[in-house]
Amino acid sequence: MWKIGIVLLILFLIHQVFLRRKNSRADPENANSTEKSTNDAVTQNEIENKIWNNKDEKDQSSEFKLQTIGQDSQVSEKSAVSKVRPRKVVRAQKKIELREITLNTDSPVIIFYSTLTGSSEKYARIMKEELETVMTKEIEIMDLSYIDGLDQYFCNPSKALNNYVYLFVLPSYEIECPLDETIELLQTTLKDKTAKPWPLTNLAGFSIFGIGDKESWPEESKFCYQAIKMDRLLGKLGARRISPLGTGCVKSNLKANFQEYLDLLKQGFVNPTSITHDFEDLDDALENENNNKSEVQDMEDIKGQTDDSEVLEIKEMVAKDSPTYKALTKQGYTIVGSHSGVKTCRWTKHALRGRGSCYKFAFYGIKSHLCMETTPSLSCSNKCVFCWRHGTNPVGTTWRWKVDQPEVILEGALAGHYQKIKQMRGVPGVQAARFAEAFNVRHCALSLVGEPIFYPYINEFVGMLHEKQISSFLVCNAQHPDNLQALKRVTQLYVSIDASDKKSLRKVDRPLHKDFWERFIKCLDIIRTRTEQRTVYRLTLVKGFNGSDIEGYADMVERGMPCFIEVKGVTFCGATNPLRMSNVPFYDEVVDFVEALNLELKHRGLDYDIATEHAHSCCILLAQKRFKIDGKWFTHIDYPKFFELVNSGKEFGPMDYIAETPEFALYGSKHQGFNPEDVRFRRKAAENRANLEKESSELRND
C-alpha cells in the first residue's frame, strides 16, 4: 500500500508542475512582471536622462526644465512620460530648466559680421539700418576679426548679455579667412568637457544670413557652408534659433533673399514671439561628444550627408587668389608657399645706404644688410594692439592648414629676399660693397609676423639655416608651451613679455587661447630651464597699456631668469592700427622705465644691469652680469664660434660664444648705439619728434 501511495504522490506533483507551466504560457506578463518592471524602470531612466547621458558637471546648483518631446510608441502606457507635462532632465544630480524668452522691439541686438572684401559688412550695415526702424534700442555692430576676447561673447558670456539677440552676416570662403577663428573657438568650446554646458542659453536667440557664390561653388556642400556650420554650432551651444538660416548668392538672388530674410526677422520682433530651444540641437551636441566625431564629419552632418568617406580639402593659409594674399603683397611681403613670408626691413635698406643698422647690431653684432626677416608661419595666436599686420594675417590656436616642407620655405625666402635686394640697385646712396655683401645672408630674424614656433617643422627649418651658416633669432609669443619645450637650439631665443598681469596681457596681446595666462606662465618656466642657450625677454612698452607695473615685470624676470631683457617703445604703425601716437612713449620715458626696473631687480638680489642702448630704435638692453667680464660687456655673439660648436656636437652654453660689445653701443655712450661709421639720416617728422623728446627731457630735468 505504501508503494501505491508514493506513486500517487509523484503523479500529483507532476500534475501540479504541468498546470503551472500551462498558466505561465497563458499569462507571460504576470510571469515576467519583475523583469518587466525592471525594464520599464530602465526605459523611464533612459527617457528622463536622454541628453545628459555621459557628460560631466561641475556646478551642482542650477535647475532646468525642458519641454516634453514626443515619446516612442513602443513604450508602454505605465512607463511612458506624459506628452503634456514639462520634462525635467537630470544630469549628475543637477536639474536644469531652460526658460522661454519672448522677442519684442525692446530686445537688445548685436550684429556680427566677417569680411574680406567688404560685402558682408555692407549688408550688416543695411541690416542695422532696417532693424532700427522697428527696434527701440540702439543696435551694436561688430567685426568678428576685431573683437577683443571672442570667448566673452560665445564661450562664457557675462550676465550683461542675458536676453541679447545675436545676428550674423557671414560669407563663406574656400580659402583661409578670419571667420575660421570663430568657428574653431566654438568647436573647441563644444568639445571641452570642463566648460560650462550650453553657455548660450541665456541669450534671447540668434539668426544667421549667409552670403555665397553658387555659380563658383556648384557643390551643395560648399555653398554658404561656414554660415551653415556656425548656425549648427550656436544651436549646439544652447542658443535659440529665432529665425531660419537665410542664404543668398552674390550672382543671382542675394538682394531679394536678404530683403525677404529681413522682413521675416522684423516681423518676429514686431509681433512678440515666444522662443524655445531646439532639442535636436541639444541632443546632437551630446551625441557628437559621445561619438567623438571629427570636424569634417560634423560638417557632413550639417549638410545632411551620409558618406563618411568624403573629406573636405584642407585649406591653404594664404591662397594666391585670396584677399589676404593681395593685402600682404601690397604691404611689401613676398608670400612663400602657402603659409610663409619674407619682407625687407627698413633697417636693411638703411644699412645698404650707410644710414645705420638696427638695435641688433648694437646689441649683438648683426649687420642689417646681411639680415633676412622671415617667418614660416604667417598665422598667430594673438592679435596684439601694436602689430603692424593691419589685421590681414590669419589667426588660430591650432595648425589647420596645408604644410609646406622646410626646404621649400628656405629656398623661397632667400629667393624672395634677394629679389627685393636687387630692387635696391638703382636707389641713390646704396654702397656697392654692402650691396654685394647683401646677397650672402648671414642672419635670419624669425620675427617678421605670426608665430614661427607654430610651424610643425620649425626644428628642421632652423637646422637648415645653421647648415648654411645663417644664425637664427626666434621670437615666440609665449602661447605654445609644448612647441617651445620641443624646440631645439637656436642662436637666440626670444619670448615676448607684453604685460605683467593677466588683465593687461589680455588687453595688449588680445590672445585667442582661453587659457592664455597659464600658457604664458608655463612658457616663462620653460625659459628658465633653457640654460644651454641665450634667452631674451622682449618687452614692448605701450603708453597707457602696460608701462607702469615695475614690480610685476620684475616678477616675470625672476620667474624666467633670461640672459637678456630688451625693453622697446612701441612703433606707430599708421591710422589702421588701434594705437595712436599718444600711445608711443618718448625715449626718455623708456629710459625711466628701464632704470626703475633695473633698480627693482637689484633690490631683489638679481644680477642684472643696463648694458647697451639704441636710441634710434627706442630700445635698451639689460643683461645678466655674467656677461660683464673685467668691467667690459660681452653681449655680442661670436658667430663663427657658434657654428663651430653646433657642428662639433658637443654640449655648450651662452658663455661659449660671446664677443665684446663695442663702445658706441654701451649705455650712456654719446653715440647712443648708433654706429659712428654710418651717417644718421632724419626725415622732417623725425626731426620734429626728436626736438619734442629733447624739450620733454629738459622739462623733466627742470
From TrEMBL:
Catalytic activity: N(1)-methylguanosine(37) in tRNA(Phe) + pyruvate + S-adenosyl-L-methionine = 4-demethylwyosine(37) in tRNA(Phe) + 5'-deoxyadenosine + L-methionine + CO2 + H2O
Signal peptide: 1-19
PROSITE patterns cross-referenced by the UniProt entry: FLAVODOXIN_LIKE, RADICAL_SAM
Top-level class of the enzyme under EC nomenclature: lyase
Residues in Flavodoxin-like domain copies: 109-266
GO molecular function, one term: tRNA-4-demethylwyosine synthase activity
Biased composition (Polar residues): 30-44
EC number: 4.1.3.44
Domain named Radical SAM core: residues: 364-607
InterPro entries: Aldolase_TIM (IPR013785), Flavdoxin-like (IPR001094), Flavodoxin/NO_synth (IPR008254), Flavoprotein-like_sf (IPR029039), rSAM (IPR007197), rSAM_sf (IPR058240), tRNA_wybutosine-synth (IPR013917), tRNA_wybutosine-synthase (IPR034556)
Region annotation (Disordered) ranges: 24-44
Keyword annotations of the record: 4Fe-4S, Iron, Iron-sulfur, Lyase, Metal-binding, Nucleotide-binding, S-adenosyl-L-methionine, Signal, tRNA processing
Pathway per the UniProt entry: tRNA modification; wybutosine-tRNA(Phe) biosynthesis
Names of the cofactor(s): [4Fe-4S] cluster
Pfam families on file: Flavodoxin_1, Radical_SAM, Wyosine_form
A Gene Ontology biological process term: wybutosine biosynthetic process
Superkingdom: Eukaryota
Function: Probable component of the wybutosine biosynthesis pathway. Wybutosine is a hyper modified guanosine with a tricyclic base found at the 3'-position adjacent to the anticodon of eukaryotic phenylalanine tRNA. Catalyzes the condensation of N-methylguanine with 2 carbon atoms from pyruvate to form the tricyclic 4-demethylwyosine, an intermediate in wybutosine biosynthesis.
Family: Belongs to the TYW1 family.
Protein name per UniProt: S-adenosyl-L-methionine-dependent tRNA 4-demethylwyosine synthase
Organism (species): Starmerella bacillaris (Yeast)
